[in-house]
Amino acid sequence: MKRRDLLKRGALGVAGLAASSGLLKTSKVLGQNTPTLGHHHGGVVGEVKNASIDPAVFLESFYYGKVSRLPSGKTLREYDLLAVDREIEVAPGVFFPAWAYNGQVPGPTLRCTEGDLVRVNFRNAGSHAHTIHFHGVHAARMDGSFELVHPGESFQYEFEARPFGLQLYHCHVPPFKKHMAKGLYGAMIIDPKTPRPRAREMVMVMNGFDTNFDGENEIYAANTAAFAYHQKPITVRPRELQRLYLVNALEFDPINSFHLHGNFFHVYRTGTTLTPTEFTDTVMMCQGERHILEFSYEEPGDYMFHAHQAEFTELGWAGLFRVSETVA
Description:
CATH class of the domain at 55-191: Mainly Beta
Strand content: 35-45%
Shape: globular
Oligomer: single chain
CATH architecture of the domain at 55-191: Sandwich
CATH topology of the domain at 55-191: Immunoglobulin-like
Radius of gyration: 20 Å
């Protein structure tokens, strides 16, 4: 059953997805019970436990690599990335056969500073040829577009980290849409040499999953697990500056978006400026676009964030910021 058929029949969220016979034919369900829809904010009953990441942990996890100093005084950061085939849970009881960097979707969030020498040791332990294409400035031989890394092979990428901002990395092997849709992508943060103001920092990679392989997504999410931040709201302190690194890695849909309730945010387009370019509550992004958003809340309470495409929201791309003086 296609996603639009589910929505037309009133099957809101992943409850309807997991209960549909079409989806169950291409998914394994844990236990005997399919997920059922809760009444609070459209969340679901049941928790994703095998998403390859813990969304709450991934949100604030950064991979700084192995750091050393070169004779020139330049900082060298060395990262290890491994491509593997792995089945992941994307909604309660709904599994997806992913291709993943370091066994996780999204891949780890790489972090460095502008001017660092970045060295990525890539090994392919998957069943298909893969590469890593990094957005940013680098030599053609490091572009990850033509030098296919076949199963069992390795490749070393090396380049100077520039420009500062929020970058994306992903596999660039045809068919491109398949390698993206299967999960081979991640965020890369290149910090400016003069640090940004102190803030609580988070990463959200907006993604989706075509669970019945019909060229349409049946599940939408930020950081892979549908409704993860409804099940476990993100707690923030009042008046604390929040910095959100937002990346759109969604395949099959041309546009994704982020809408914040009860507030506006400053937009730093691609993160390549220290001056905000917009002040709004909704940002629209095509695949590969990424922005840094900054905001703070004054009043306590639960505030939704979600895609401002209602269909995406109902199929998993929604969460809550819980503003409280008491943060665990």
